[in-house]
Structures are given as C-alpha cells and as structure tokens.
Amino acid sequence: MDPIRNPYAPGAGQRPPELAGRDEQLAAFDVVLERVANGRPERSLVLTGLRGVGKTVLLNALRGAAVRKGWGTGKLEARPGQGLRRPLSSALHQAVRELGHRDEESVDHVLGVIKSFAHRDAGAGARMKDQWSPGIDAPAVRGRADSGDIEIDLVELFTDLGGLAGDVGKGVGVFIDEMQDLGPDDVSALCAACHELSQSGLPVIVVGAGLPHLPAVLSASKSYSERLFRYQRIDRLSRDAADRALVAPAADEDAAYDDDALAAMYEATGGYPYFIQAYGKAVWDLAPRSPITAADVAVAAPEAESELAVGFFGSRYERATPGERDYLMAMADVAAAHPGAGGDEDSVPSADVAAALGKKPQSLSPARDALLKKGLVYSGERGRIAFTVPHFGRYLRERG
Length: 400
Hints:
Structural class: alpha/beta
Strand order of the largest sheet: 2-3-4-1-5
Number of domains: 3
GO molecular function, one term: ATP binding
CATH architecture of the largest domain: 3-Layer(aba) Sandwich
Number of helices: 16
Pfam families: AAA_16 (PF13191)
CATH topology of the largest domain: Rossmann fold
Protein name: ATP-binding protein
Oligomer: single chain
InterPro entries: AAA_16, Cyt_c-like_dom, P-loop_NTPase
Distance between the termini: 35 Å
Keywords: ATP-binding, Heme, Iron, Metal-binding, Nucleotide-binding
Strand content: 5-15%
Shape: globular
C-alpha cells in the first residue's frame, strides 16, 4: 500500500479522518447551541474518559460546531500549578474577536474587563513590567473582575461577556481541556460562575474535558455541580463505529478491509480511537495490497505495538520514579489476578496494591499521590485506584 496515501492519523488530539461514534454528542451539542443563543436554559457540558478515547478531538469538534454557528469561542488547557486567569484571558480575548460585535465601545469595555482580570494575576500593586498582558490594546477597566477573589471576578467577567454575546444574538463557548488539573480555588470559581450563568440565562457555556474522576473533583468543590453540568462519558467505540473509523478513510483511497481483518483490528485495539489510528497506520504501511486481510493485521501488529510502547505507554512510564513504577506494576498484577468487566481499565483496591508490595497502605501514599499528580492514575472512589491509560497494565506486564 502507498504510504503517502495512508489516511490514518495517530496523533495526540489530532482529528481522525472519520470521527466515528460521536454523532450523538455532536447532534446534542447543536441543540445546546441553538437553545443558548435563543435564551433557553442549558447546562454546561463535561466530557470524561480515559486517555486515548478522543476527548480532545471531540472537544475541538464541538468548538468547531460553535464557530460555524457564529459563536465566539476560546480554548485553554489546564496544567497543574497554573492559575486560571492568564490562559482564560487569552481564550476569552479570542472569543470576543470571533463574536464580531460592531460597537467598538462595548467591545473595548469587555476587553478592558478581560485585561483587568488578567492583570490581577500579578497581585495588587504589582509593577507594570511584572503584569502579564493578554495582547489587548483597550485600557483595563478598574473595579470590574479585579477584586482578587477569583470567584467574584469570574462571575463579573462572564456576566459582561454574556451581555456582549447577547447583543448580537450569539453565544460564547469556553472550552477547557484537562479540566481535572485546575486548582481547587479555580474549580470552585468556575462552578460558581456557571451557576450564575444558569440563573441569569446569559449565553455563555463552559465545555470541559478530563479524566474519569473529574465529576468527583467538581462535586468536592461545589455540591450543586452534579446538577450544574451535563456529564458525558466518552468511551471506546462500538464494533460498528470502530469498523467505520477504518473503512471510511480506506474507501476514500480506493482500499478496503475484509471481514476477518476488521475483527482482528477490533480485537487488537479494543475499540479505543487512538489505538485504531495507530494500528490502522501500521497495517496500511505494511499490507501489500487491498483488501487488507487478518494476516496483514498479524504482520503489522508488532510494528503498531512497538510504536505505542514508545510514544503512548513508554513516555508515561519514563515519568515515574523507580518506587512509582513498582506501584504501577503492582496495580497491573492485581488487575490481572482479579479481572473485572473492564480488565486493566477497572479500578483496584489500594489496599490490595499495598498487599502485593508487602507494605502498609500509608507508606505508599507518597508514591500514589505523585502518580495522581502526574496523571498516570486516578481515583474515582475512595480506596480504589485505576490507570488513566487503557491497556497500560498489559504493557507493564509484557515489559516485565
């Protein structure tokens, strides 16, 4: 097969040639956009799932849908230890530009509020050279979104932004990736701002994406967050959707798979979108001709697994210290010894991990906490722990 015509795209956050299995979420979001723009009440949206299921791709697709409706949009990626003010200010600056409001005075006012919100990050009385600027020419608006209390400031900022969007009959969408990495104060402020928006009916929504424990993070911040957001679990693809993700791009290049090849691909990938793209690329490059067969899949599997071992699994494994790697390996062994419905994707009791290492659970808290901060594991419920990456346990066991 011609590698130049290879249609598959195994990149982080890179949209695949066929966004299969997400039609329901896209259709539902179109309804949200229309309702919000028409002053109807709607909840903000949170996407959750393991790494490799396509959360970022779907987040970008939803943002694209908002842009096509004429909305103002901005996107940011939360990072551990980073405050919300600076990245959010940049995102909202872009959103205001996309709205295309024709009243320069109104636009300058909102941009000035964004600038004031951003400058407060440096602290009261900071020298001009220490103040970060979001690239806004309008002067900062004093006394608005600059109190220093992130909760108060965010409510004021979103209120002014919503008023600007309402003037033109559109909305503003704030898209936040890796939302679980926001600090506690920022999570609380974001929930409070979304609560205010839902009560006032202003056309601003937040769309977040994060790991499976994100709902627990939000709930721990504000108890009403369970009713504030619409939660959508993004999971592996069904067999039909996984087949479509492979077949449709191949058909565009006048190629095909036989039925046994598709079955073998689903068995190898488990329906995870990132794995589908990785295996699809390797199989295409090594298959001699169309249609692609199960034998071609078997020949290409080691190549795909080698690529995943370095770029997807290995890069994460290398971030762990020796003690943390022991903890990860114990998790993999416990999952293999007591497999649930999801295998390595299921959580395991922290006490069992400690028992496998012959240590007391309290002594392993530093390793566990470090792995949580590095995003290699997550805890969806008290006393249990799980990998954030599908098939990671299998990788660890094969590594030995």
